[in-house]
Amino acid sequence: MRMLECQRTTNEWARFFGSAHDQGVRWLHCSDEYESFPLLCQCLAELRATRPGVTFRFVVKLANPGFDDSRFDESRFVARLSSYSEHLGTDHFDLVQWMWRTKDGGDAHRVSRFLAESARLDQSFSTSVARGLVGQVLCFPYSPTFAHAALTLPSINGLVIYRNVLETEYESALDDCMRLGKHALAIRPFAAGKALASAEATPETLLRYSFSHPAISGIIVGTSSLKHLSELLAASAQAE
To answer: pTM score, two decimals?
Structure first.
């Protein structure tokens, strides 16, 4: 969702998340790279104060290395998790959406650097899980080639990928997930609205498609409307 595009107060947003929880929402996908992240944290802090029974599980985005970095930095990885913990008011993240970014060198360079540092990555991810701070690490790969490489790491439990009727390039990676006993989350089931342009497409059919591969364990959808949320939940129930 794009929280800053809606003219709502912190209190109004807190009520929105409380109502979403009342409708059955238990997971939030968030990133401290978004401009709206401070507002989200304020809303969740208000909810903790006014409705302590309202709790969420988190999928947090974490790029390491970033575009300006050349290698994985374990201390920065831990620091980012600690920052998330402080701001979101939780000591455990069920899922970390991890990304390897580089500014130069292309996909082949990214994959070769990842493989060269895979032992350090595996140890760092495994340590975070063993300490109870992280439940699982999923990779947002940016490319099918990187997806296949990432799935070779034992501590990476799966993928976060685009999967909809217009974006299907990760099918073989999803097959790898199944073969390895891993799973994936699908983002953009409606392809940013483009998939709904077809006369035959409905939210139910598009969600059903995104769910159709057995490796898909969940779908990430954004909304800032309780009415839209109700429609999405109904469509999701029919799609499963």
So the answer is: 0.94
